[in-house]
Amino acid sequence: MHPRTLEFLRELAGDEGVAVVVRGDCMEPLIRGGARLTVRKRRFYFPGDVIVFRTPNGELAAHRILGYRRAGGGMAFVTKGDHCLRHDAPIEPSMVVGAVEGLAIHYGDRLGALARLGGIIVRRLRR
Fold this sequence. Notes:
The chain is of the alpha+beta class. The protein has helices at 3-15, 107-126, and strands spanning 18-21, 36-40, 50-54, 60-71, 74-80, 96-100. The longest helix is centred in the last third of the chain and has 20 residues, at 107-126.
């Protein structure tokens, strides 16, 4: 995806939301392949939120925020698909299109995301 395309999507997501269609199963059972989602830019994103972002290979992905970490002189999101074995590389805020609208993100989902981030940290410290 061209950087200008990403910027255009971010702009649309900020104004009225942008519709995307999911390919793949990385967020099942919460989001199934073929689902049509509305993505809207927010000022803040929290652990447990599902965001759509540009991956390092230029594609869009919808994954859950586990937490934050320092990267490249700033803060970045730590994300992981619910159905994925590994977490993603750090996601800079400039790569985020927005959060998926209409999902019921409960307090337990947010705590679970933070717990998964804690597991990642513990595994790294054991190396």
